[in-house]
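Sample entry was shown:

___
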Amino acid sequence: VTGVTGVTNPVSLAEMAAGCARKYAEWVDVSLFASASFVQTIHAMLASTHHGLRGGGCDFLAALAHKGMDHGAKVGLIARLDLVNVSVNALNGALAIEAAAAADGGGDDDAEESEGKAAALAAAVGGELLSCLRAEAASHAGAEANEPHAPPPPKDACDLAARLVDELAPACVAALGSRHESTTMAILPLATAYVNRLKDAHAARLMPASSAANVEGTLGALLEAVINRSSFPDESDVGVDFGDGDDKATRECEADAVAIRQELAVLFRSIARLAPHLALGAVRSALARALEPQAGAAQSGPRWQTVETALAALHLVGEGAHDGAVKPGVEESPLGELVEMLLGAWDVLGSNSPAVAAHRLVAPALLEICVRYHLAVERRPEKLLRPALAAFLDGRGVVHRSREVSRRACYLFCRFVKPLRGQILRHGALPGVMVALEPALMDAAVPEFANPSAANSVGSSFTGGGTGGAMATAGNDDRLYVFEAFGLLLGVDDAPDDLRIRCLEAVFARLRGAVTEASSHADPANRNPAAAQHAIVAMGNVAKGFTLRVATQTSPRVGEILASGLDPALRCVQLWPRDPLVRTRVVAYFQRLVTTVGSAVFPYASPLLEHMRSARPPSASDLRECLVLINQLMASFKESLLPFLATQLPNLVTQIASALAPFAAPGGGVNGVCGLFLDGARQVNPRLGGANPAGGNTE
């Protein structure tokens, strides 16, 4: 490498020589690479304007840093070759080149590659220094516990390593915020290792005073870098419109941004557990930047990326926090203050920048926060309940112009009202909520068949996950959660009975009509089982919000309305007895009513069982579903179910015995559970004496 002269292409040859030296670095004597001329050559490569030479130099030094050596010797080598300053200069230079290219409206792959290799060098050097400090802490921990342990590295080497880590930290923090994923991911393990060192009690106790004084500033800078790097990229940089959720390229870019956000979230959580006050301060600063008026932003307002990133940070900081906004019984609530700050300014943001507040990634982010911090709303309902409800019920929520956002909002609204329905009633908001829900209920009553996969909400930009609930997995529409929220609100004990009955009758009339229309067409080919299922699930969801006392004692009319959908639902089972989804939906609705209206479902139990096993012969799955239903009825009504069992059980036992007979022992003996059931079946129905093919011995 040091003698590259008089050749046609010295740059290319130097790159090849550096690559060759990198391969030898692991096993040859390190003194070969520590001479003044060699170090000067490597420095010249790193200072070159040619990206290949810079990258080759970084690769070689990273390999040298990873060379297997004693901790003390490794720290000495790093200091002797001045690798910390070398890596800092290389990294800062690469970041400056990339920043200049970005300012000119571009950037190239070569600059990105050089930046990534400089970051890898810094991570390698920093990782070795932290490894020395971990060895020191582990040795002291073993000595303290009186357990076998390796001797610690020399004290002067550990002190030097701590000082060099402090010198390296600012450049690494800057690299963490790089717009290039390769750079960020190269530095992230080093940042994580730095935080893990602080979490180790022995390492923290052994830390020099100068290093301890730098900790808070470094952690604050890391938090700031994580929050900023978690932002979605500028649309002009990636060439997509994040407001268009139907575009494939947008989806891919969004998935990439969410993936790196999840990686950074691990570091954020780790710092937040270590220093909660720093995390809260970083989030507060992010919210202030997103919500407070800014000079020169009167016309355009804040960027939606800035607002969404601040919301994501507020959502993230609450994970596992010991705060009254997320844990009942905790008095102090700094997070509640942040939520109040957010909701207090949200309407102003919506007025000044409606496009930002209603953006398809910003709008659901606020709703996620309202759900996570519902205890904060519960503490200050007079100030926070109205703006939270407005965000759910206007064009930023359940009636959002984007279908994916409106579906997600329906799911989140259901989660929001479950713990807060009493507050909504006490503060006089229930009538207004019912009026505002009407468009969403009307929309959700109509199934979406054009794109079944799109019927489920796409999930949060914080996690990338969807609802994860039964509706999504069973193929239902997440908009149906709005019916559950509707039932929860009207099912509150003290809800005005006239309002409750009026709203219930209107919704159930629409849903019963939908089931009837889907199942009563003269031409069987035009009947629509999917539409019927949709309406049946909606009726069952409404029933979830009511208790047995409300539906049978406080307001018996409510129970009548809730059960009024059983007649058209049973007709669906009669029309499509072999459709498993139809049967599952109807049975689920019936089971829900068992717990809601009680014995009022008795008249429908026998017809339902008859329809469920109407096929000749009924399948094993049909019979199993019948048994599950009977078990639930027996658990709910006990001896009052005797008349029903007297009429239904013999025939059901006969059919089950016929289904099990082939599994009995061929010689006439009992074969486990099957044979025992057949013995019991003969006692219930003596006519089954020949059900066992072999007959005879049943002892």
In short: The chain is about 70% helix and 0% strand. Residues 434 and 503 are 8 Å apart (CA to CA).
